[in-house]
Amino acid sequence: MRMAPALVAFLGCLVCLSPSWAVSLTEHELALREHYQKGLDQVEVDRRALQGRLHLQEKECLSRFVSAPCIERLRVESERENRVLDLARESLSESIRRLEAQARTRARAQRAEELSAR
Length: 118
Fold this sequence. Notes:
By secondary structure, this protein is an all-alpha fold. It is 84% helix and 0% strand. It contains three helices and no strands.
């Protein structure tokens, strides 16, 4: 999906100007977030590889005279492997959300401290 350049610029301004979205992560948190993001990217690469492998196996199953047992075995394997990938994706996404939530909490505490110091 392509966004109009004006919309991208507008969203960029919103992110820069909004203190609730401009979460400052520490160096360690940035490194962790990058690590988790690479893990998410790898999950998607693995998912595409799985789909390609399953497609080839499905073709092989369909070339057999009696293909029902093979197709059923392939369906079960596909569901199991997709479930593993989904769990990995959810775990990594949750870790990213947790990091960002910690940074927002820290920023709120810092703003509250600044307000109370006035």
